[in-house]
Write a structure and sequence with these properties.
By secondary structure, this protein is α/β, with parallel strands linked by helices. The chain has helices at about 20-30, 70-75, 90-100, 120-125, 150-160, 160-165, 180-200, 210-220, 220-230, 265-275, 275-280, 290-295, 295-305, 310-320, 330-335, 340-345, 385-390, and strands at about 15, 35-40, 55-60, 65-70, 80-85, 105, 130-135, 205-210, 245-250, 255-260, 325, 345-350, 355-360.
């Protein structure tokens, strides 16, 4: 929702020295929850790298592109942009003053990269004992790879998810969005909130150390534990599930449909819908472990049966039988859906460059709803006001 409603993190001050996606994902979420976020951007480089990661861009009233790329806007609402050169003596001094006023500092420099500026955790902890200092890097603050650069694609490769993704005979494939960055930002948010709770109880701040690779390994979830339990390397299966059959995307007469048969009673209803009653009494398919063992034999029979029916017929028929089924939607269908409207998953804001259309926050609170107070900022838009203010977090919104 827009407006001045106070979120659960109202009054929390965030000094954001991060850029690209993982850190900004975290600080946008904190901002949506009510925190006041100062986004520090480098005046020498023109700010966050993603400002130039387009097209598309928001265009100004003359049709010229602005520094608001869609990529940048995806992770930078509810922030003020302040241009500070941390390589300058004045810039470093200003950032140290603001760090002393902040509750949270988040950065994604290479490990040790801020030490030469006196802005690393060890340099700040004595004068800012209550500060929660979150560091995000490719491989973390420790370990043999700590000095290697980290990017989402590298994390997806090193952390194993690419080896699981793609068609069985195809190349290893990354996920379609920067999911290693996004999930690292989510873990960072959780860690920061836990540290905030601890600080509020004890008065003691701490460092939260996040690695893109660690976060990506953590969300290998069942496939990772499958391997640790069996020592058998998982196979790439395209859209299929390693532990459930049938659970996949199937061709229909006019498109594709998702079928997710989660238990044996659903399977009985599923094959009844397909007019394949013989499958319900076939011992090879009686239970899910049986269907796993005879995966290809089953798919050979059900694929042509699904391919002979229109998508809507399959979805409607299976939904009536309480067998999970659904469409594979393109983004125009997603954002035109009644469900997106009902859940406010598209939001519209007004920036200095004009109207912008963004993805909403999925969190729905009964008492302290998320708020959309500030559109993604133009580079350095709040610099003068921040430097003129004794407390830049209390500038008017």
């Amino acid at each position: 929702m827009t407006g001045a409603s106070k979120g659960p993190l109202d009054g929390v001050r965030v000094l954001d020295l991060s850029r690209i996606l993982a850190g900004p994902t975290c600080t946008q979420l904190l901002g949506d929850l009510g925190a006041d976020v100062l986004k520090i951007e480098n005046p020498v480089t023109g700010g966050d790298d993603t400002r130039a990661w387009g097209p598309p861009y928001v265009l100004d009233d003359t049709g010229e592109r602005t520094d608001l790329s869609a990529y940048f806007m995806a992770a930078n609402r509810n922030k003020r942009s302040v241009a500070v050169d941390l390589t300058s003596t004045d810039g470093r001094a200003q950032l140290r003053r603001w760090a002393a006023q902040a509750d949270i500092l988040i950065e994604n420099f290479k490990p040790g990269g801020l030490a030469k500026y006196g802005l690393d955790y060890d340099s700040l902890r004595a004068e800012c004992p209550r500060l929660i200092y979150c560091s995000i890097s490719g491989y973390g603050q420790t370990g043999p790879n700590r000095d290697k650069p980290g990017y989402d694609l590298m994390a997806q490769g090193y952390g194993g998810i690419m080896s699981l993704t793609g068609e069985p005979e195809g190349m290893p494939m990354k996920v379609g969005v920067g999911i290693a960055d996004v999930m690292c930002g989510m873990y960072a948010t959780t860690g920061i909130l836990a540290a905030l709770r601890h600080r509020d109880q004890t008065g003691q701040g701490q460092q939260v150390d996040l690695a893109l690779v660690d976060a990506q390994i953590a969300w290998l979830i069942n496939e990772g534990v499958n391997y640790l339990t069996s020592s058998v390397l998982p196979q790439r299966r395209g859209n299929a599930h390693p532990n459930i059959v049938p659970y996949d995307v199937f061709e229909t007469k006019d498109g594709h449909v998702i079928i997710a048969v989660g238990n044996d009673s659903q399977f009985q209803r599923f094959v009844g819908f397909l007019d394949l009653p013989e499958l319900s009494s076939d011992a090879r398919f009686a239970t899910n472990p049986d269907r796993i063992a005879h995966r290809e034999a089953l798919l050979t029979v059900i694929r042509p049966a699904l391919a002979a029916r229109p998508t809507e017929e399959v979805i409607a028929g299976l939904e009536a039988l309480k067998v999970p089924a659904g469409p594979v939607q393109s983004l125009d269908q997603v954002f035109a859906s009644d469900q997106v409207a009902a859940r406010e998953m598209q939001i519209d804001m007004t920036s200095d460059a004009g109207p912008v259309h963004l993805i909403g926050n999925p969190l729905k609170f009964s008492a302290t709803p998320v708020t959309y107070r500030l559109a993604p900022p133009r580079f350095g838009a709040d610099t003068d006001d921040a430097f003129a203010s004794e407390n830049p977090w209390e500038m008017p919104k």
